[in-house]
Predict the structure of GNAT family N-acetyltransferase.
Amino acid sequence: MSKKEEQFHFRRAELDDQETIWEILQQAIKRRKEDGSTQWQDGYPNPETIENDIKKNYGFVLTSDQHIVGYAAVIFDVEPAYEVIEGKWLSDGKYIVVHRVAVSTEAAGMGIATHIFKEIEKVATSENVFSIKVDTNFDNIPMLKILDKLGYKYCGEVHFRESARKAFEKLLN
């Protein structure tokens, strides 16, 4: 394990983390806007979203030297928006859903989101779940590149919050 990887820790978010997570999400919302993306430009996610993630044990943070540098919601429940897809999922069994991946401004461009996804894969396999499903806006180029690099396969479109979104799945072996 490299020195860089040793400093990271992926853990469930706690209510005490909520303010920092919200700051990171606000930074990510701003970056999406600066990139010309329409994703997250309508009041979602918001502080209540984060609080609900944490209370439902969906919220996870990636820390570096005790500082939160990234966030993701990792959901073990069925995602209702994924029940109807214009296309076809790779599998029909149990899966984990990933939503709200965000990286702090100071850590942006350092591979943090990629590291988060790799940690989520470890969480999934530790729970005997071998499928991860995720969606993103058609104009979220950084996330589309990460999903491609990590081997996620495009499966079609789902509708989430009244918008068409690109849907991806990765099967873990």
User: Anything to note?
Assistant: Residues 27 and 104 are 6 Å apart (CA to CA). The helical segments are 3-6, 18-34, 47-55, 112-126, 141-149.
